[in-house]
Amino acid sequence: MDDHAPPLPATQFGALPFRETRNGEVEFLLITSRGSGQWIIPKGKPIPNLTPPETAAREAFEEAGILGEVDPHPIGRFAYMKDQGQPNAQFIPAVEVFAMRVTQQLTLWPEMGQRSMVWLTPEQALHAIEIDALRKIVRRFAKTFAKGA
């Protein structure tokens, strides 16, 4: 083992929260990161005894106060710089993303008040998200949703 190489962070798991509007369009829920304040999706490190989709659902509950149905199959992966611009910034090599149909938005949750959140149309979400690979996941999901798949 190379003593000089830092350990690679574990893969994280995230939820792409969505809902269907009355006119059949899709909207996405984005939250701000606590470090950089950029618009992202709920995500976090693996949680012992939970599957990746269950971990994504738990993160969505803790960070955004939402409950819903998480697809067991990932819809994409992206990498990002955690706490970008901060002295302790860390590269996260992979966030596996699971689609989450939101069925309930709670009024109280663990990280309430620590982040902003907003429901956006696909176009608005694509404009707000800075991480290119996450934008691609959102764009692809929105196209698939529009086709009724």
Describe the protein.
- The chain is an alpha+beta fold.
- The protein has helices at residues 52-64, 122-128, 132-146, and strands spanning 12-20, 26-32, 39-40, 43-44, 66-70, 76-82, 90-105, 117-120.
- The chain has a single domain (12-146), classed as Nucleoside Triphosphate Pyrophosphohydrolase (Alpha-Beta Complex), CATH 3.90.79.
- 23% of the residues lie in helices and 35% in strands.
- A hairpin with a 5-residue loop joins strand 1 (12-20) and strand 2 (26-32).
- The chain is globular, with a radius of gyration of 15 Å.
- The termini are far apart.
Short description:
With 149 residues, this protein is α+β, with helices and mostly antiparallel strands. The chain is 23% helix and 35% strand. 28% of the residues are buried.
Descriptive terms for the model:
3 helices, eight-stranded mixed β-sheet, Nucleoside Triphosphate Pyrophosphohydrolase, disordered N terminus, alpha+beta, 149 residues, 8 strands
